[in-house]
Amino acid sequence: MTYFHLAIGLFIVTYVFIISEKVHRTITAICGAVLMIVLGVINQHQAIEGIDFNTLGLLIGMMVVVGIARQSGFFQSAALYVAQVGKGKPIPIFLLLSITIALFSAILDNVTAVLLMVPVTFVLTNHLKVSPYPFLVGTILFANIGGAATLIGDPPNILIGSAANLSFNDFLVHLAPVSLIIMVVTLGLLYFWFRKEFVANPAAQKKIMAFQPKEAITDWPLLYKSLGVISLIVVGFFTHGITHLEGATIAMGGAALLLLMTAIDPEDHLKEIEWTTIFFFMGLFVLVAALEHVGAIRILAEQLLVLTKGSQTSTVIVTLWGAALLSAVVDNIPFVATMIPLIEDIGTLTNLDLQPLWWALALGADIGGNATLVGASANVVVNGMAEKENVHIGFLRYMKVAIPMTLVALSISTLYLFLRYL
């Protein structure tokens, strides 16, 4: 058996175990990653190179900041404010949360957005006495949909923007309109899907409306410090193009500053980090690095492009759907990194207009990442945070909702790309 077949075989077996959920996904991912090294598919140096420490640093930094901010009562207060605006009714609250998550994902990034909003979601659903499951599914879907709208919203967009020399405004002009359409349609579909679960509890409504959101703040000085640091982090993300500081540096810098300002024992806050999620990411990155090393991802990407036979329309549509399919299986960050040089090669070998291809790749990777719980970083983070609250989303259960939503979103994207560029 060649290393090529061994890598694919190990990846498939690991993925089957992750889907089956018979063994915890973090244990499964780490075992698969270690086997890739032990069996010689890649060596330890190559495995470590394959780990995206920018993503991990961003996650760890923001988890520390969110953990400290939570102690001020900020998330409880924000949740109560949203609940009162929505009159304590599940449907208006679901709509408000979904729009907020999509907006935060566009102006920050989708991982930061879910780290900030999932605690609010749990506070709300506990007060409303409703299942958090529809809200968590909505969080994942709208984080990726909102993230698709801007250059900084989703890590694959940053990679594409850098390679193709596309600005923040380019993404806003070309991808924000279709993201907005997809968001509205998805809101309607999710309401239809979960309408029986959005049942108001009169007693809970009355209790919520009696609350004073400000009274939930238990430490005002800590709140001001937390909001100040979060604001600095937001500015850091926005000025990334000028400062050239990566997300990990900005988030870890914010975490260090907040720890310094609060003089809190860091041990307590390091316990707040979702270490199971961090180690799952590490295992997943090594597995994908092994596939990259043996050329499996590149071969799949090349075969997708061979199907198009040089046609602009076919190349754009195959790139969109192919990127979506592969991003559902492997994390969309390494996949996009593999696709970028292929699209650049197309530009040198053909007369095709590359700009529609970049938009197709971004939409396919961002929207396709919604299809499974491992398709995008935000999905893994939400699942990890849910587990910490003893809420089980479930790989197959999630896919039953997410795959139809993703197919509808990709159909809208196809029509958009065809009408606007082809």
Care to describe what's here?
- The protein is an all-alpha fold and 422 residues long.
- It has helices spanning 3-20, 25-38, 44-50, 53-70, 74-85, 90-107, 110-128, 133-147, 155-164, 168-194, 202-210, 220-238, 240-243, 247-262, 266-270, 275-293, 296-306, 312-329, 332-349, 354-368, 377-388, 395-421.
Search tags:
422 residues; mainly alpha; 22 helices; 0% strand
The major β-sheet equals: none
Shape: globular
Give the overall average pLDDT: 88
* Residues in helices, as a percent range: over 70%
Number of helices: 22
Pattern of helices and strands: HHHHHHHHHHHHHHHHHHHHHH
Strand content: under 5%
Structural class: mainly alpha
